[in-house]
Specification:
By secondary structure, the protein is mainly alpha-helical. 67% of the residues lie in helices and 3% in strands. The protein contains 20 helices and two strands. A two-stranded antiparallel ribbon has the order 1-2. α3 (39-62) runs parallel beside α7 (150-162). The two termini are 41 Å apart.
């Protein structure tokens, strides 16, 4: 037998010994298979770390800085209560009354309305606490599945539990912990090996607050390369079905209201707190333009000469930053660690370069920043902590001074610069780690 025949015989034998894996590689397109250890190997670690972080978060919420049991009702929670009570009274959102938020947000508004009206605020805040704990638990699952050591695992959940103290009462006065929990749940679903669940949770999150949609291309790339085209089709079908189940009934019953609500989000001008708004403020102070602030579309927005050019600039930056994350992830190995790192990077881009940047948007980053690649997660957490603290300096007590374009608006610009630095750090780390 020739040497070539000997090599062919050895190759066939090796393929048979490995269950035919070698033969399949020679005859079929290569698909990366995720090797899942027994869930008990990492779920036990995730459970203890998640409970640790959740306990710290509950403690933080009880403190007056966040104020779980505070009796004063914010304007936003009062609005949520009206939305929820009208829904339970049989009125159709978007048709019988205007709702500025996506349809899945109504879950967070209506559930507390099932209790006594006088306790709506406490019930709503308790619901947000549960969402925060769920997000921390999902964070722990992803980190444990990646194989994070005890120091990172417990440090990350401790950060997620205590970082809200730097932002203050807005953490429980907005419903953003609801989509945050859904987004973190989608990543945990990937870590647990589910094929449809992550897409369903991502669809529900996007129907609650649009930003989870930016994770969809990342999830699609990983699914296509790890599980194949048929799995991707099933996942996208789950995403579409979940979104349609939530959105379609309201679109059919109140098409005009849904269309107007979506239009408001697309055409609204630069918010004074956004990166573009901060740049307009700086240009005004430097004598390059004359900027004014007006209230429309439910926020305070900047107007004046040059604002349109700044709006175009930040829009292009947003498109470029999102595309950069998607392409960078696609060019490397679709590991769970890189998916997690790309997820926080793409959300950071959406926050940093969007036309609107309300203080509660930083909540989206808290359970995701610890998922940054291991080499940068501590610097990334430090940058986010600085952004949270800078926001708390002027919101809510000095927000009127920001709207008046007083000197404190320089802190808003500094906060936005920190967020840009955070995104840059995450993108560079993702590009350096291709495997």
């Amino acid at each position: 037998m020739s040497s070539r025949a000997h090599r062919a015989e050895r190759l066939r034998g090796a393929g048979a010994a490995s269950g035919g894996e070698t033969g399949s590689v020679l005859t079929k397109p290569r698909i990366l298979r995720a090797r899942m250890p027994s869930p008990t190997l990492y779920l036990r670690r995730a459970a203890t770390a998640g409970a640790f972080g959740s306990g710290l978060f509950l403690l933080a919420c009880v403190l007056p800085v966040i104020g779980l049991f505070g009796r004063q009702q914010s304007a936003d929670v009062a609005l949520y209560q009206r939305y929820g009570e009208q829904l339970l009274a049989g009125r159709i959102p978007y048709r019988d009354y205007y709702v500025e938020y996506p349809p899945a947000s109504l879950v967070a508004f209506a559930a507390p309305a099932l209790g006594p009206a006088e306790h709506y605020t406490v019930i709503f805040k308790a619901l947000m606490v549960l969402c925060g704990c769920a997000a921390i638990a999902c964070l722990a699952i992803v980190l444990a599945r990646i194989g994070a050591g005890p120091l990172r695992l417990y440090g990350a959940t401790a950060f997620a539990g205590l970082a809200p103290l730097a932002l203050g009462e807005v953490v429980l006065d907005r419903y953003d912990l609801w989509p945050s929990a859904l987004t973190a749940g989608a990543l945990a679903g990937v870590a647990l090996g589910h094929s449809r669940l992550p897409y369903g949770l991502l669809g529900l999150g996007a129907a609650a607050k649009v930003y989870p949609l930016v994770l969809l291309p990342l999830l699609a790339v990983r699914t296509r390369r790890v599980a194949g085209r048929s799995a991707l089709k099933r996942g996208l079908a789950a995403f579409a079905a979940t979104t349609l189940v939530v959105v379609l009934p309201f679109a059919l019953l109140g098409p005009g209201g849904v269309r107007f609500s979506a239009k408001v989000q697309l055409v609204r001008p630069l918010q004074v707190e956004s990166l573009g708004g901060s740049l307009a403020f700086a240009a005004d102070r430097l004598g390059l333009t004359d900027v004014s602030v007006s209230s429309e579309y439910g926020s305070h927005n900047v107007h004046g000469a040059g604002v349109r050019a700044i709006t175009l600039l930040v829009t292009l930056l947003l498109i470029a930053s999102l595309s950069a994350v998607w392409l960078t992830f696609a060019r490397g190995e679709p590991t769970l660690a890189r998916l997690a790192g790309a997820s926080i990077a793409v959300v950071a881009a959406f926050v940093a370069f969007g036309k609107v940047l309300s203080p509660q948007y930083l909540i989206w980053l808290i359970p995701l920043v610890p998922l940054a690649l291991e080499s940068v997660w501590l610097p990334a957490a430090a940058l986010l902590l600085a952004a949270l603290a800078l926001t708390h300096v002027w919101f809510p007590e000095h927000y009127s001074d920001v709207v008046a374009l007083d000197d404190i608006a320089w802190l808003v610009l500094a906060r936005n610069a920190v967020l840009v630095a955070l995104f840059s750090l995450l993108l560079v780390s993702l590009a350096r780690r291709r495997a």
